[in-house]
Amino acid sequence: MSEAAYLQVARDIREQVSSGQLKPGDKLPSFAALCEHYKVSNTVIRAAMLLLKAEGLIDGRQGKGVYVANPLPR
Question: Keywords of this protein's UniProt record, alphabetized (predicted)?
Fold first, then answer.
């Protein structure tokens, strides 16, 4: 059995951040664009975003979009 679609999306975005393809402060594509890119529903993208937000990897700004969060100082 393959993993849930939202986990695949979250992992892909996480890899883009760790590889430097997406940098802190970068804006993520719109939900519609992500749905199109991953061929999944809005629900799947929302679940992936909630997961990444809980991990502190992304930061949603009301009316502005979703951005890669600045890493917390270690």
Answer: DNA-binding, Transcription, Transcription regulation
